Amino acid sequence: MNRSNPRASGTSGANLPALRSHNAALVLDLLRTAGDAGISRLELAERTGLTPQAVSKITARLRAEGTATEAGRRASTGGKPRTVLKLVPSAGHAIGLHLDRDELTAVLVDLAGTLVGVRTVPLDFGAGHDTVVEASAREAESLIGGRRVLGVGVASPGPLDHHTGVLHRVTGFPLWNGFPLRDALADRLGLPVVLDKDTNAAALGLALRGPADSFAYLHLGTGLGAGLVLGGTLLRGSRTGAGEFGHQTILLGGPACGCGARGCIEALCLSSVARGDIAAAARFLGVGAANLVGLLDIDRVLLGGRTVMGAPDSFVRGVRAVLEERARRGGGDARAIPVSVTPGGPHAVAEGAARLILGPVFGHGAAGPGRRLAGDAMRLG
After folding, report:
1. Which segments in the chain show pLDDT lower than 50?
2. Which of 146, 193, 273, 321 has a 20 to 30 Å separation from 256 between CA atoms?
3. Looking at the DSSP assignment, which residues form a beta bridge with residue 235?
């Protein structure tokens, strides 16, 4: 890399404002994880590798902006007691929108990720671009209420292009193909917007709050998809198409699916649910989960979505039974992978969408091309 000319590299690695923002994100993340107990400037320097002078400058700026505040004093091993600092969660907020095929859920979370407000209203995803954009903007605005908002994360059915914020041919809704939903909503709200698939948003939110392991989040609602986290990193794929889990064929000549194929897991699950056979739906979902476990050697399977939440014990039991059977056939050291309902609850996708906004503020993940959220919406860096 030519460090004497940042433009020559085509990256922001040597860009001083970006470096300052990165350092501030490190400090903010430690303030966040310290909670109300707080953390001293010396500890911040030790854990970030920054100089005490750099930490003092960053924390002074954060305090001036109202993002950090004193949390008392702590006895030291020598000298005067150390002042400890903590994050001010109410200093900033993020909105998460979950656009389902028939329902819109909007949440407001603070900097600590705590749920502050939630709204759920009916939505016709096939009503047209303008109708959906206006409904989304209206619900977002109803939650802002004069608060400082960093941006809006949107979780939508896929497939879509996370980089450009453009939807592709959503199953059953071809009219969305090529529509720039991210930019349309950003123009309407005047706020930064990040768009991702519903399953990716939920998986990202779960990854940020849990261990850095590998897991699959399987979302069964009005459709079926997967969010894949490998080694603590969300897998989107080079074309952002990873996780189109529901449209793998497991029964040749099976029921027709909205994607045009037959015997897809999504069609088998939804048709089983429609006739009241939850056990069959759970077994079909288990077959798909077992395929993922075999292909990716993941550590756990998390289940979510409205359909799963309608009978969580039955789905967990059915998926677990298939995985246990596969493990027994594997022999040797093969073990059944744990299965559970997502800890995110009924708003896991919408809260995950909000974390698309919060993640970059604390140095987790990227906000997306041209979307420097912390710098544009609130001077946290």
Report:
1. 1-16, 366-379, 381
2. 321
3. 228
